[in-house]
Amino acid sequence: MNVLVTGATGFVGSHVVDALLEQGHTVHYIARSTSNLRWLQGKDVTRVDGSLFDVASLHQAVSGMDVIIHVAGLTAAKNEEEFRRGNFEATRNLIDAVRAYNPSLRRFVHISSLAVVGPSGSVETPVDEYSPLHPITAYGRTKKLAEDVVREASDIPFTIVRPPAVYGPRDEAVLTFFQTVSKGLATYIGFGHKSVSLVHVRDLARGIVLAAFHENAVGQTYFISSDEFYTWPQIATLTGAVMGKRRLISLRLPHFAVLGIAGIVGTLGKFAGKPPVLDFEKGRDLIQPYWICSTQKARQEIGYRQEVSLHEGISETVEWYRSQRWL
To answer: What is the pTM of this model?
Structure first.
């Protein structure tokens, strides 16, 4: 089929492109000529010159497409208004373009986030697709607004995918964690138990494409994640072993220190050119004990399964980082 991918030049989007090409689909993507196309070079994909904020360019982008997979969005911003523009307004523009120029679209797949639901109350109660939505950050709130726009478009067959934290080759967001472990140091937030859901980017891309073409997925929302939950000591120990670091020095930061540092970094970051990697809201995110979600619905309805184990995923990521001399 003809598939349009937004955010295709980024980490997750480029892997979605790979998964689509493996299945023989014809892939288009939206980007300006000045965009960094490093992850798409040499691939049989077609660029549509445009932007999610240039409504005229969306006419050409959406016309003739069978499926649109909307990966693009902001994960870092200086304030809530920037998040709102990048997550909510961009999605609204794309939905409006589909209504105007491609009303017979077969599927609109929106990539959301676990942040829309918020953290879980305990390790025994991971959130699922029926959990009430309690986002605790501007990112989560604006991704929720984007979901609302998609659901309100009842005339467009849609599917929503909510990943948790994503890792794998091409990712820069968690690179700092790997760099820290490579130096023999494991930094943990707080002193209590914390559990997280993670998804390797190849599992996520495969799950997104699976949801995009499965007839059961129309009008549905799915968590595409690891089937098991992990602890940060477990992740750090395994990462250290893969890197040949038999012993790691553990450093635990109390929650008040994390929030204090995050607040200072966030304030200073507002005066920088790029959005801060860490701010007070991100600090609130980091101190939550349970960022975990259930994949039961995705397994039952569309046949999703985690295929990349934590060991395999970390090994592949470390090897890729080293090949790029990022480590």
So the answer is: 0.95
